[in-house]
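To: structure desk
From: M.T.
Subject: fold request, one chain
Message: Could you run this one when you get a chance? Sequence is below, nothing fancy, just the single chain.
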Amino acid sequence: MKTVLTYALFIAFVVMAGLLSGLTNMPGEWYSTLEKPFFNPPSWVFGPVWTILYVLIGIAGARIWQLSPRSAAMQVWFAQFALNMLWSPTFFGMQSPALGLFVIFPLLASVLVFIAKARRIDPLSSWLFVPYAAWVGFATLLNATLFLMN
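Reply: Done. Structure tokens follow.
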């Protein structure tokens, strides 16, 4: 029962925090006026992608928490999550692609560090972060391109 509760709490926390961050930092009119690169996805893509990623992030966090709650991997998990929650307010809330870059670069680095550190504790948790790393890498490219184009 403790295992199920840990998974439920981690997944619910991550998904709800992500939803709250997204709802309080909507792209809005400012974002619609930006010149965008050809590879900018349609807006409807972001909700489903982030929901899936948040579930994977929650599962990975729960797994590491159960196996090694005081590990460096768990500390990096919390750091990456804090940076994840900080990106939308800096990029959309403050309407600043430049500040977004200052958050997303360390976010990407922390995701990659988690993958490396988690691999030693639980390889599956490490693999659960691979789609997240790919998406944050893409988001970093998109953020940088928006900064350069605008």
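Reply (cont.): Helices lie at 2-24, 28-33, 46-67, 72-93, 97-121, 123-128, 130-149. Let me know if you need anything else for the meeting.
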